[in-house]
Structure formats: structure tokens, C-alpha cells
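Can't paste images in this forum, so I'm doing it all in text. The chain is below; anyone willing to post the predicted C-alpha cells underneath?
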Amino acid sequence: MQFQIDPIKRWRQARTRSASALRWWRTLALAVAVSVASASAIAAPPAAGSAKAPALELARLSYVERKVEQGTSGAWREAREGTPLRIGDRVRTAKDALLRIDFPWMAVTVSPSSSVAFPDEYLLAAVLEEGRVALQADGRAILKLVTGEAAVRGQGQVVVRRQARTTLVTALAGTFFVEGAGRAVTLAAGTGTVVRAGQAPLAPLALPERPDGLDPGTDPVYVARGEPVSLRWTGKQPAYLVEVLSFGSDAVLLQLDVGAPPTLLAIPWQGTFRWRVVGRDERGLEGRPSPVGFICVDK
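Text version of the structure:
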């Protein structure tokens, strides 16, 4: 059967449409990822008397689910898959929306109720204004991520959440450096830190335990499209993040912040999906994702 609304097909089509552009994006990627000093080459001022050059493309929006907006200088418009992200742009997601941005060397997933800016400044960086982002860069360092409390650099896979003037960082793979108030800590995979306004990052912290005992688990449950399914798991944390993934990819399709189990979730597409849950401790720091369970959605 084919999805009536196929998020994975949309995501793959967006990547295909952008393939030809990636050849020249790699030149830009080297400029922004290898050295801060080279950032000046990205947006060199035009010659005297000439028209201002348009902002260069930095990435592409490869997956847009529900209400996502993109804009510059306060002018917002509906975000669409396959459109470029330019230096100076901002993106924001509604409380039930999700966005994936593909750079030539990294991927960024923007969670619901989040706002991220890519300011046109000499020191190129992404600014997490509020909410949550997950970044993955296996081949080279991520674009520097800045919040009101901290700056994050490194290579691998990292989750950064900003809430109530506090930045929470979880390193899932690789090594990351977190700076705040003139001090820095190094996070190895499986550790995290908390940075409060005006304070140095906490020493590396052990992550919350992984949830287990997912129901439905490896024996999938069958539901009709749009019908809520009851999700259960075992864990001791006060809060959790539920994620729905495609069957054949690690691309996240839906996210939902929830409390203690059980919770109800309706998947609006037809097909077979995986789901998992992430625990968050009393500070809000995330742990590693649980093993996956399976949900089959019929028409």
C-alpha cells in the first residue's frame, strides 16, 4: 500500500531536488565548518556602487510537518520542503510541528515550539532562541550553536534544549565542548550538562536511565489511520519525549513532550512505524532513547 500522506517520500524527494545544489554548497560548507576565520568569505560586501548581493544559501528544508514558518527581519512566511535556508533566516515551529534542515555536512531536527536563527554576522552560528534541536555531524564539526546561556561546539550527535533561561546539553555520540560564563566543559558520549543564566556549565553529568518495557514493543499493534494508540513504558523520570520514526530510516517524523505513561498518540499516515521514548530528569536533561516499538497503521 502507498501512504496517502507519505512523510518519508516527501523527505527523500526534497533531498533529490537539492542534489544538484549540493555540489556548490560543499564549497560553502568548508568555509563555515573548517575555520571561523573563513566566515568572512561567505558574505563579502559588494563593490562600491553595485547592488547588494542576495544572501547565500546555507542549507535546505528537507522535512516540514505541520505549521513551520521561515523569515527574515520579522517577516514570516510558510516554510516549504525543498526551499533554501539562507544566512539571516529564522525558523520557528508550532507546538505540534517538526522541521529537518539538511546542511552539506550536518543535519538539524527542530522540535515543536522552537525558534532558531542563523544571523548574518561575521562569526557564523546558529542561535537557539527557545525550544529544542538535535544536531548530527559525523564527518566534521557542527555549526556552532549558541543560546542565551551557552555555546556548543563539537562533532557527533547532540541534543540542546533551552527553557526558562537554562540550556541543557546531552551528548549522544562524539565529543562536545560547552562554554558559559567564561568557562567550558567537555562532554563525552553519554554525558550532559546544565548551563543557567550567568553561570558556568555544570561538570559532566550522568544521563537519566533509558526507559524500557515499551508497549507496543517488538510485537506491533495495528490501528486505523488517525486512531489514538496507548503507549506505555517503564521509567522513573518525571517527563519524557515520545518520537515516531519511519520503518526504514532514523528520520524523526513526530515528537511529543509528555509526562508519566501512559500517553495517547495518533499517527496520521498509513504504514509501519517505529516509536521510542526519551526520559528527562527533574532538571529537564535528556537521556538516551529507549529501544523501539512498532506500530502498524491501516487505512
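The helical segments are 7-17, 19-33. Residues 7-36+56-206 form a domain with the Jelly Rolls fold (CATH 2.60.120.1440).
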